[in-house]
Specification:
Helices cover 12% and strands 31% of the residues. The chain is mostly beta strands and 499 residues long. It has 3 domains: 1-49; 54-299 and 308-319, no CATH class; 404-499, no CATH class. Strand 1, helix 2 (57-63) and strand 2 form a beta-alpha-beta unit. InterPro entries: Pectin_lyas_fold, Pectin_lyase_fold/virulence.
């Protein structure tokens, strides 16, 4: 007896009593039960290590709905239309699977499915590899004639009703080394001008890259070429503890002046009188009518809702955000990622917590970075070519920011280098090596209580609302606020200071 309990491995030379015999019979039965449980566990372990080879999308589709497998698909080129209508997807509902799609290339003709065609709803899966490319039936690779594109709603300007190509709703999954080329949406070529939600004007049909809605998921080493209106990688409720690392998200930009070159009466800029509508009363019904095959409801075009003219001499991002968190989308860590030419680059201001490490966001159209309260950016870089390096959206405070400002010789638009809203930040701006920039846009501060070290040549302007900030700056400082402490420094590497 050990600690008042009998061990299965005890032995005795004494003749057991009748009560003891009964007990031994119970112990024997327990040994059998234990052996059965161990056998089942070993069986599952062996099953998880057994490779299942598949060579068709149909076989893959069947396999990923089961659990505890290593599924390896034969390298080659496949088409989603190899699957029958109504089953054109890869529903990974199984758990504890490794799904290896190395050297697998899948084309997805635009318009042949109306939903996410990769869904990972199981838990503890590794989805690895695979190149998935949306292709236009007419062979079009790059949209340059936006007039013709948007008038072809049946085979070109056709999205997924707002869904993402790849959706992760399960927990503890990893998507690794997967490339998506995302094409097909309406309208495309105008960014957010005609609305992004229920208030859209002409009927919205988005197509996004990767959506994460589960917990503790990892997106690692993925590439998204976002050539449709929609997000690259984004998190929605109830996502939490998401990690996005080693990823590239790249969109497309378009000069706003090009919209004035569209003159066909059916072109959207003509229909909106080259203005950004303020009242989008046709949006919800327009989208519903389009799905039901009814004519779109024409938006009202009274002077009260025509809005402001489409701006000239700016750049319009044709997609939404590169890496985005929505309200209740939980916490996120972004590491060693690059975002280019999206509306917002690394846009995490609605996250519960967020850390960005060694990442780059450049040439984005609304902002390159923004963070939530207590957000951290470490060892990262960005430019201000078409939008601020950071816009500190919603004045979120207490951020710890370290960013290297990259010169932007192709600068377009009237924005600042950065707009520092909110209070009590700790901010360091480094500069890249090389000659001083000649585009000396300012870093503008409107909040209070922040410590800012500016090692760059860009000037700092402390607005009238800025107070009790501590600024150490190589670039000139204009102090229009109150109780701010300002110290000038020489270029980094020189220890002397200027009062």
């Amino acid at each position: 007896m050990k600690n008042g309990r009998f061990s299965l491995f005890e032995s005795s030379c004494e003749m057991p009593s009748p009560w003891g015999l009964a007990k031994l019979r119970g112990l024997a039965n327990l040994r059998v039960l234990t052996a059965v449980i161990m056998s089942i566990g070993c069986s599952l372990g062996l099953q998880a290590q057994t490779k299942l080879a598949v060579s068709t999308l149909s076989e893959l589709r069947d396999a990923v709905q089961k659990s505890n497998q290593t599924i390896v698909m034969a390298p080659g080129r496949y088409m989603l239309t190899d699957l029958p209508v109504g089953h054109r997807d890869v529903p990974c509902s199984g758990s504890h699977n490794t799904i290896d799609l190395s050297d697998v290339y899948v084309t997805v003709p635009v318009g042949t499915t109306r939903r996410s065609y990769i869904t990972i709803s199981g838990d503890h899966n590794l989805f690895r590899g695979g190149v998935f490319e949306d292709v236009y039936p007419n062979g079009l690779k790059e949209v340059t004639d936006f007039s013709a594109y948007n008038q072809n709603r049946s085979t070109l300007a056709k999205g997924l009703s707002g869904s993402a190509v790849l959706s992760v709703t399960g927990d503890n999954n990893t998507v690794a080394d997967t490339k998506l080329t995302v094409r097909g949406s309406f309208p495309y070529g105008y960014g957010s001008i005609y609305g992004i939600g229920a208030d859209n004007v002409y009927g919205l049909d988005k197509r996004c890259g990767i959506l994460v809605k589960g917990k503790q998921n990892i997106i690692d080493g993925c590439e998204i070429q976002q050539q449709a209106f929609g997000h690259g990688i984004y998190m929605q409720r109830p996502a939490d503890e998401t990690v996005v690392r080693n990823c590239l998200v790249e969109g497309v930009m378009r000069p706003s002046n090009d919209l004035y070159l569209e003159t066909d009466p059916r072109d959207l800029p003509v229909r909106s009188d080259y203005r950004i509508p303020e009242t989008r009363r046709g949006g919800r019904n327009g989208s519903r009518n389009r799905r039901r095959g009814r004519p779109e409801r024409e938006p009202e075009t009274t002077p009260a809702n025509l809005g402001t003219p489409i701006p000239r001499d700016t750049m319009i991002p044709l997609s939404e955000d590169g890496i985005r968190v929505y309200t209740d989308g939980g916490s996120v860590t972004v590491e060693n990622c690059t975002v280019k030419k999206m509306r917002g680059g690394i846009r995490l201001y609605l996250a519960s917590r967020a850390t960005v490490i060694n990442s780059t966001a450049v040439d984005c159209g609304a902002t390159n970075f923004n963070m939530p309260k207590n957000g951290k950016v470490i060892g990262s870089a960005g430019n201000f070519a078409y939008a601020p390096l950071s816009d500190f959206r919603l004045s979120k405070s207490n951020q710890d920011i370290e960013l290297t400002i990259m010169p932007s010789p192709h600068l377009v638009g009237p924005h600042h280098v950065a707009d520092i809203l909110g209070n009590n930040h700790n901010i360091v701006f480094h500069r890249t090596e090389g000659p001083l920039d000649v585009n000396l846009r300012p870093i503008v501060v409107v909040g209070s209580g922040s410590t800012i070290r500016n090692e760059t040549e860009y000037p700092v302007i402390l607005q009238a609302t800025a107070s009790a900030n501590s600024v150490v700056s190589y670039g000139p400082v204009t102090d229009l606020g109150s109780d701010n402490k300002v110290v000038r420094i020489d270029p980094p590497g020189d220890n002397s200071t200027q009062p």
